[in-house]
User: Which sequence fits this backbone?
């Protein structure tokens, strides 16, 4: 493995901390939306890592700035997947909210009934 | 032929979106056609050996690589046939169960993603399939309405989390080796902290998705909440996808030292799953939860077999692993369909509704019992075949006492929960009256896979041969 | 002989091939027939007649079969059929004493059967799978087999100390049944002892003197015990114990190399005793039922005197034969032939005492009956019929010593005066003793009389043992599984997502550290 | 050797009860005549086929029929002398039990299901008898468990369900142990066909420990059904099943399956010599002897007729095991012949118990007083059966005990003779009181639940006929033991073939 340059290391650390923050948020956050966001942060971290790696592998070669095309493609695909997953999750969340409000509404009524 | 297997479901799913009216017919047609294709592919592969195919003619390394070996073909055949059966069941009960129209395209997509998964031998490609599989599965679970949303959402979150773990592992590996296809990676593999942590990340992600103990917590709720045909598909097929990848990783990638270090953990996890899942299934008051917990337990067999395979490197154990998967898929589909049918007809989720079911719905109960027999491993069922192969593999290693006896004990647990249902069904004291006249066709459809799993034993020799060839 | 081996079991055969079997068969048969004829009248008004005849017929068949058997299994078959069906005869009346006696009888019969079974097995094994008597004669014995045989068959033959069922069962059974029980069935045990154990076997010789002593003890014991009872049939039963004692002596003598000389006496003794005791039991039955005309005393005194061995009777002949055999016997040093023959004379005295005691008991019975029902009514057909049956037995008894070959010789020997004197003085002595006893009022304290035997208590104890009301049960663990399970369920995390994710993270870290 | 269809004979014998059974499942409750005729047709066909096979086997033929199954272990059906012993027993008793069951279950619900499983049960039993290697045996062994379970819980009451659960727990556990053992043995020597003298001798010196382990596992598995001592718990509970089922369970199907398996295992898998080399016979024999005594002892305290009979079964079946474990030819004859004799005797006793229960409503022993007067034929049959169990000649039980005793002495196991004698005493102690009550005690009050099932006979003729038939068999088998068609001569034939394999 080649020597890691300072900026690369920085990028790597950023990616790692993104993942860590995401994981923390995923584990802690009780709200579903927060969990979805946490997942997005993790995926952002991973994609960042991929981009950095694409950079690094080409760094040793002759052409300085051309990144690894395979990883680029992978990141693109991953983004598409992540976006669609997020969209689906949000849709599901919406239905969850809807159903929980439907379910809790009669419940509240029941609780208030005796007072009235 | 492989391309047809992929294109056919994709096309029919698209067509379904255009013509929702004929969606059921399209789905059934695509499943039936795929089954025939899969059978033909299996015969071809069995005769001529493994086939490779690169998408769109790109060179190897860049292109998406597909590989059809006997195991893949068997699994494809299994998924298409089950798809067809479940489709037929859903079609037969459509007027009663009010399944949303979404079921047909989604199930076809499920078939697509599974087929793709069985054929892929490329880590990233596998990731995409896995993600697609997870999303489709969650969507299917959410079909059953309000009460299913919460489990579905949990399932989704954990599934995405697991996928991300897997992806992170893939990325680490790519960073280290610059390769994605498994064969290539295996040839350059070095045991080190990087490959260790990548393997660990991927495995844990996959275990979460495959609901392997102790990461199974999401499964019972999700499977129990889904409509009966969906539960059948989920338990029979979906959890097997990540398991397949897990096996690929450990059997083809991992070095011997890594495998040896990990083997006891897998075996222990498998045993724990057997015990825990079995116990939970024995105690749960709900019918579908029982079957779902049984899935957790039965996956334990596969995990255990994987662990033992890593320890002993015995082709028979490998065969046993996949025999478990095949037998479990068929049996579990039958169980879920039968239980679903009975809950629908007798009206209720609790196990107690099955009181006297042997009189009111003898066929469905029979289907459950027959499938249960395979789960227990009574001869001459598929489950027996798998257990036999596992025991043979173990005994060939010499004086092994612990694992065979552990297996016996675990099997007793599975017998206990299966017969918990059967005994209830024979209760003549106060049988639960059906809400409406039981339908015959769905019951027969539930019985079919159960009979198929017993028929597996008749083809035991070719099956064992095929699977053993694979390992070598 | 009939060879049944291709049909029944290997070696199965029936036939009367030896003289022993022939005579035994004929006298048993005649006794059974007479008893059956007697039953026709005696049991005419009894309850459960069908059951009586069923068991009567079965034990009859069993008895005949065991005598005619040429192989061990046939013998055992007949023996079992006879013993078990005799139970039905013993408990026939169904009252408490009969049921108790029946229980004791059955317990001992079963034990005897199984001991005999073991003995036969051992014997057949030693004989290398041959079951017929003939081949067994050449096979050496071992002590275990001898012991098992003697106890197994002895429980049927009823000598001391295996007699305990006899005084219970015989009085309980109806009179004709007691007659065959005492006359024919206990002889089955004796027959077995003779056929089973080959004469001249070296190991067996070791047993002979002890068995002779046992026989003497049994002969004396039977009489002494009988003096303590006042019920005629009990006295008769004890008389059987005593008589079987003599027979046992003969059996033991028949085991020696001198068997050829002993067997005729043994056969004669058995036959004589069968007829005499049969007649006495039949008489006792009638005597207990109704007041009898005076001439019926003849039916008692004739067989009684025969058993007391009054000169000219069959008893005299066989006692003489026994005495001469004993004096010729070669005995080990600690046993003296003179003492034995002396004991025989003492035995004669005791026997006479017994019958005198019996006569008194019978008279007492008659007295009670007369006081209850008045004088003897005009005898009906039934009584004549019963009398006729008795008469047949008595005629046989008189005819036997003079016409029948084995006994003729012995009877002729007793005609000499010294013999007559030797035979009759114990009788006179006995009569004298009885008179003195009457005159001096020799009596034991009342508690010693008519005691209910302790064996009934043992039998009851045994019954409680094998019919327990409660038995040890495996302890059941009581543990509240449900509560434990609830506590466990409460431990399950509520939030699936965070717990799973956290678990995954922990496993990841642990795994990374571990690898 | 013979026309080609003869090779399908073993299969045909199984199918002759399996097919009617499967058809009966689909019948409606009301199709009584069709169901009965199907049943009887199956029985008749089976008996004819068995007769054909019997003739051929007697002449020295052996039938084989095999289907590929596991690698190294085909599904083999093998008709040899030993298997025929069991086949004849089960088909003849099936005939009796079918007639009895038709009478017993007249007008009760769910008969189609009952008779369906009934036929399946017999098919499994016959299959087990005909199986030609351990794997096929295992298969039918498990099928038997599954087929009998619905029969045990047929009444659907809480007690029967509890009994069913217990039955399953025991038998499935046993089946698994057997599976483990068979798999172990298969890994050592594969699973060739049963052969006199066994097939493990080649690896005895090399793998003695593993062989012992395999034997232990398999005996534990078989011992569950044969109700060997610590594994007998299911049997007394399973008697809550309807009388024909208990009869079949106790006499033919289940317990005999275990005992038969032990016979196969000892003689045709391990073989006498290997058994001796591995020192396996002695522990087995002692265990069985302990079971004999324990079962008899427990039977003493049981106040329920069927329960007492159940404990008696525990004791009696172990006679077979003891006979086999003594490893001598005479003892083997005793054990084999007891397999048949005990079946016939016990089925008679259970028929009688069923008759008392069905006609008089009597379940307890102390309610039986005077039943001999009300039901003389039944009581005669019961008496015969009980005497047979004690071993009184001329019943069948005597013949088997005689040979067992001879075998015990011949193989120098005098201790076993003591066990037989003592157990005979115990048998008498728990059977004779019943007989006493039947015949000698007067009836106490009215019967608990009396039903007039027939105008002239004491009960329904279908309940009487099979019972009288088997009772007659007890006497015939006990008396005519030397004839060519008696079980004894057949057992001798088997032993001759088993012990002269060199």
Assistant:
């Amino acid at each position: 493995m080649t020597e890691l340059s300072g900026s690369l290391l920085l990028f790597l650390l950023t990616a790692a901390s993104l993942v860590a923050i995401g994981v923390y948020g995923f584990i802690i956050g009780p709200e579903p939306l927060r969990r979805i966001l946490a997942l997005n942060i993790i995926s952002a971290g991973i994609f960042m890592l991929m981009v950095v790696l694409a950079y690094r592998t080409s760094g040793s070669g002759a052409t300085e700035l051309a990144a690894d095309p395979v990883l680029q493609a992978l990141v693109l695909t991953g983004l598409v997947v992540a976006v669609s997953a997020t969209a689906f999750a949000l849709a599901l969340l919406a239905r969850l909210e809807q159903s929980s409000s439907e379910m809790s509404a009669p419940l509240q009524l029941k609780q208030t009934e005796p007072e009235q | 032929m492989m391309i047809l297997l992929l294109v056919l479901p994709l096309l029919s799913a698209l067509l379904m979106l255009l013509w929702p009216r004929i969606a059921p017919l399209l789905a059934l047609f695509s499943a039936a056609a795929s089954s025939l294709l899969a059978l033909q592919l299996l015969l071809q592969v069995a005769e001529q050996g493994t086939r490779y195919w690169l998408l769109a003619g790109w060179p190897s390394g860049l292109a998406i690589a597909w590989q059809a070996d006997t195991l893949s073909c068997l699994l494809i055949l299994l998924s298409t046939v089950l798809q067809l059966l479940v489709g037929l069941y859903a079609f037969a009960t459509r007027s009663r169960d009010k399944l949303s129209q979404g079921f047909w395209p989604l199930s076809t997509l499920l078939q697509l993603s599974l087929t793709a998964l069985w054929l892929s031998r490329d880590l990233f490609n596998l990731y995409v399939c896995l993600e697609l599989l997870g999303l489709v599965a969650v969507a299917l679970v959410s079909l059953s309405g309000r009460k299913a949303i919460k489990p579905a959402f949990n399932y989704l979150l954990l599934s995405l989390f697991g996928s991300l773990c897997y992806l992170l592992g893939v990325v680490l590996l790519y960073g280290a080796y610059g390769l994605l296809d498994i064969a290539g990676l295996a040839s350059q593999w070095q045991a080190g902290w990087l490959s260790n942590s990548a393997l660990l990340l991927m495995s844990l992600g996959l275990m979460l998705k495959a609901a392997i103990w102790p990461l199974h917590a999401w499964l019972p709720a999700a499977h129990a909440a889904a409509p009966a045909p969906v539960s059948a598909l989920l338990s029979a097929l979906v959890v097997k996808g990540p398991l397949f990848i897990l096996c690929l990783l450990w059997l083809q990638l991992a070095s011997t030292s890594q495998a040896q270090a990990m083997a006891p953990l897998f075996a222990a996890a498998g045993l724990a799953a057997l015990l825990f899942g079995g116990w939970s299934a024995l105690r749960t008051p709900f019918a579908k939860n029982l079957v779902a917990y049984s899935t957790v337990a039965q996956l334990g067999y596969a995990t255990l077999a994987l662990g033992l395979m890593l320890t002993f490197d015995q082709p028979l154990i490998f065969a046993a692993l996949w025999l478990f998967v095949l037998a479990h898929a068929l049996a579990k589909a039958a169980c879920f369909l039968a239980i679903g049918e009975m809950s629908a007809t007798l009206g209720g989720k609790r196990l107690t509704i099955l009181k006297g079911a042997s009189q009111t719905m003898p066929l469905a109960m029979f289907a459950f019992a027959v499938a249960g027999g395979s789960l227990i491993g009574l001869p001459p069922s598929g489950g027996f075949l798998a257990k036999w192969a596992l025991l043979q593999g173990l005994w060939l290693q010499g004086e092994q006492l612990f694992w065979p006896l552990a297996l016996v004990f675990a099997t007793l647990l599975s017998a206990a929960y299966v017969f918990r249902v059967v005994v209830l069904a024979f209760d003549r004291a106060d049988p639960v009256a059906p809400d409406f006249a039981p339908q015959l066709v769905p019951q027969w459809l539930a019985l079919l896979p159960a009979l198929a799993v017993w028929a597996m034993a008749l083809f035991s020799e070719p099956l064992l041969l095929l699977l053993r060839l694979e390992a070598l | 002989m009939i060879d049944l081996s291709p049909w029944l079991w290997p070696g199965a055969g029936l036939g009367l091939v030896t003289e022993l079997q022939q005579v035994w068969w004929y006298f048993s048969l005649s006794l059974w027939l007479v008893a059956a004829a007697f039953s026709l009248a005696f049991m005419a008004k009894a309850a459960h007649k069908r059951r009586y005849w069923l068991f009567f017929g079965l034990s009859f068949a069993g008895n005949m079969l065991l005598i005619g058997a040429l192989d061990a299994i046939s013998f055992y078959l007949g023996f079992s059929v006879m013993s078990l069906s005799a139970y039905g005869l013993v408990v026939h009346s169904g009252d408490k004493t009969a049921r108790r006696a029946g229980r004791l009888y059955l317990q001992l019969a079963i034990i005897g059967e199984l001991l005999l079974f073991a003995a036969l097995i051992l014997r057949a094994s030693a004989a290398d799978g041959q079951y017929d008597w003939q081949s067994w004669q050449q096979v050496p014995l071992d002590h275990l087999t001898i012991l098992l045989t003697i106890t197994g068959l002895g429980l049927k033959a009823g000598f001391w100390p295996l007699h305990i069922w006899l005084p219970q069962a015989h009085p309980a059974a109806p009179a004709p049944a007691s007659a065959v029980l005492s006359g024919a069935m206990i002889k089955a045990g004796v027959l077995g002892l003779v056929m089973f154990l080959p004469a001249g076997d070296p190991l067996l010789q070791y047993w002979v003197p002890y068995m002779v002593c046992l026989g003497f003890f049994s002969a004396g014991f039977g009489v002494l015990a009988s003096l303590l009872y006042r019920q005629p049939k009990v006295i008769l039963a004890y008389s059987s114990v005593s008589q079987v004692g003599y027979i046992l002596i003969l059996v033991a003598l028949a085991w020696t190399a001198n068997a050829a000389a002993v067997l005729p006496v043994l056969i004669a003794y058995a036959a004589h005793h069968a007829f005499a005791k049969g007649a006495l039991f039949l008489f006792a039955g009638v005597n207990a039922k109704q007041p009898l005309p005076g001439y019926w005393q003849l039916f008692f005194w004739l067989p009684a005197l025969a058993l007391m061995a009054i000169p000219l009777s069959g008893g005299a002949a066989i006692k003489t034969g026994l005495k001469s055999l004993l004096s010729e016997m070669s005995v080990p040093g600690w046993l003296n032939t003179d003492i034995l023959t002396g004991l025989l004379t003492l035995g004669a005295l005791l026997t006479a005492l017994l019958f005198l005691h019996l006569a008194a008991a019978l008279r007492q019975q008659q007295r009670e009956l007369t006081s209850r029902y008045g004088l003897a009514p005009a005898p009906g057909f039934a009584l004549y019929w019963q009398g006729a049956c008795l008469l047949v037995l008595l005629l046989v008894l008189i005819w036997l010593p003079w016409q029948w070959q084995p006994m003729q010789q012995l009877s002729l020997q007793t005609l000499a005066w010294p013999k007559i004197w030797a035979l009759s003085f114990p009788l006179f002595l006995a009569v004298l003793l009885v008179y003195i006893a009457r005159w001096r009022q020799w009596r034991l304290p009342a508690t010693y009389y008519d005691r209910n035997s302790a064996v009934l208590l043992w039998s009851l104890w045994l019954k409680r043992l094998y019919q327990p009301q409660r038995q040890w049960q495996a302890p059941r663990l009581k543990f509240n599984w449900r509560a434990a399970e609830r506590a466990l369920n409460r431990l399950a995390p509520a939030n699936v997502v965070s717990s799973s994710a956290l678990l995954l993270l922990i496993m990841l870290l642990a795994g990374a550290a571990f690898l | 050797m013979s026309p080609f269809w003869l090779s399908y004979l073993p299969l045909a014998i199984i199918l002759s009860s399996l097919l009617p059974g499967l058809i009966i499942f689909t019948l409606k409750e009301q199709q009584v005549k069709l169901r009965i005729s199907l049943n009887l047709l199956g029985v008749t066909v089976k008996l004819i086929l068995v007769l054909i096979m019997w003739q051929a086997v007697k002449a020295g033929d052996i039938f084989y029929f095999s289907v590929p199954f596991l690698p190294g272990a085909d599904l083999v059906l093998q008709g040899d002398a030993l298997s025929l012993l069991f086949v004849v027993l089960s088909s003849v008793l099936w005939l009796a039990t079918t007639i009895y069951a038709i009478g017993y279950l007249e007008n009760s619900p769910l008969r189609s299901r009952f008779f369906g499983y009934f036929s399946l049960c017999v098919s499994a039993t016959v299959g087990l008898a005909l199986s030609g290697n351990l794997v096929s045996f295992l298969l039918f062994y498990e099928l038997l468990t599954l087929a009998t379970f619905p029969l045990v819980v047929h009444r659907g009451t809480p007690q029967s369900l509890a009994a069913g659960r217990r039955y399953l727990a025991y038998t499935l556990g046993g089946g698994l142990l057997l599976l483990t053992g068979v798999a172990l043995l298969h890994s050592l020597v594969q699973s060739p066909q049963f052969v006199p003298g066994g097939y493990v001798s080649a690896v005895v010196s090399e793998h003695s420990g593993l062989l012992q382990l395999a034997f232990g596992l398999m005996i534990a598995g078989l011992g569950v059904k044969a109700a060997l001592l610590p594994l007998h718990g299911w049997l007394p509970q399973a008697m809550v099943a309807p009388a024909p089922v208990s009869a079949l369970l106790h006499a033919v199907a289940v317990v005999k399956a275990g005992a038969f398996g032990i016979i196969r295992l000892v003689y045709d898998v391990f073989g006498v010599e290997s058994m001796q080399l591995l020192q396996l016979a002695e522990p087995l024999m002692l265990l069985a002897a302990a079971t004999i005594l324990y079962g008899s002892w427990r039977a003493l305290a049981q106040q329920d007729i069927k329960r007492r009979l159940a404990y008696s079964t525990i004791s009696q079946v172990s006679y077979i095991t003891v006979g086999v474990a003594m490893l001598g030819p005479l003892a083997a004859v005793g054990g084999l012949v007891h397999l048949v004799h005990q079946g016939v005797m016990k089925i008679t006793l259970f028929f009688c118990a069923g008759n008392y229960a069905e006609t008089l409503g009597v379940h307890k022993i102390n309610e039986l007083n005077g039943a001999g007067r009300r039901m003389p034929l039944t009581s005669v049959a019961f008496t015969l059966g009980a005497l047979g169990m004690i071993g009184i000649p001329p019943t069948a039980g005597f013949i088997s005990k005689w040979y067992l005793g001879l075998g015990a002495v011949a193989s120098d196991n005098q201790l076993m003779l003591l066990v037989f004698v003592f157990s005979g005493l115990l048998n008498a102690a728990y059977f004779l009181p019943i007989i006493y009550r039947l015949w000698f005690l007067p009836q106490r009050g009215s019967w608990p639940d009396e039903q007039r099932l027939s105008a002239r006979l004491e009960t329904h003729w279908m309940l009487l006929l099979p019972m009288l038939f088997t009772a007659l068999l007890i006497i015939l088998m006990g008396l005519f033991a030397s004839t060519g068609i008696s079980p004894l001569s057949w057992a001798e034939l088997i032993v001759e073939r088993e012990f002269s394999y060199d």
